[in-house]
Here is the input.
Amino acid sequence: MEPTLFEGMMAGGIAPGGQLTTTSEVENFPGFPTSITGSELTDKFREQSERFGTNIVTETITRVDLASRPFKLWREDADSDKDKPDTCDALIIATGATAKRLNIKGEDKYWQRGMSACAVCDGAAPIFRNKPLVVIGGGDSACEEATFLTKYASHVYVAVRRDVFRASRIMAKRATNHPKITVLWNTHVTEAKGNGELLTHVELKDANTGETRDLDVSGLFYAIGHTPNTQFLGGQLETDDTGYLIVKPGTSLTNVRGVFAAGDVHDKTYRQAITAAGSGCMSALDAEKYLEDLADEEQEKASKL
Here is the structure.
């Protein structure tokens, strides 16, 4: 096989390599006992794929036609359907999901300098250990991430915009009863502040009174959800009500034969580098088997002519 990888050019505002490139220290990927940065890890992924003959194209696919084979793919600079598309017989969708951000003041300056959208990915990093942290969100993810962070933080604050959690009762109870978690009701985080290098505190605003105050924290974590990067598919593949691709259980098969899904584009539960890698292996094996079956089918058809 001669696979081609379209790695995207700042698709969704993220560099080739996806969300992992925005992670400062990856502590839980097998084979790296002393941790590795997200960008270093994705560079190694890239080198390994090239060693096995992958043709990597640093462009973004913005439209597809999956109605018939070969499937048609249009690059970002294509003006219309008249532009010649790239084609393939098997397609793996591994476009991931983009963490939602609030774009508060100071976010650009302190993103990955104390700000993150993945507690499980970044929470064990040295800059967060034994330090006070704050999580923004009111759903199950916020409660889960706050509870997870208590393993490393000296204390965790949860800033909730309303006076009640949206989370399930059991998750909310677990967070509110935890001795290392303080819930800040009716609270907006309006600004990330620091010393120019790292985040040192945030500005809070009371939703009822409008009063503001600073809170000393060394980390701010968004837990307000993710958006799966499936819009470019134009509804041609089956998704759930939030846009994540649906696959046949235990496989990477979508509802279109010859199209497979890998990683966070269909996984909204685990969202880890290692689970995405395992999912990628599944989709590659499924695609390889599909192409072998396709070749057998075409050979059988030719023999009957």
About this structure: The radius of gyration is 22 Å. Residues 45 and 226 are 24 Å apart (CA to CA). The longest strand covers residues 187-194. Helices lie at 38-51, 107-110, 119-122, 140-149, 169-176, 273-303.
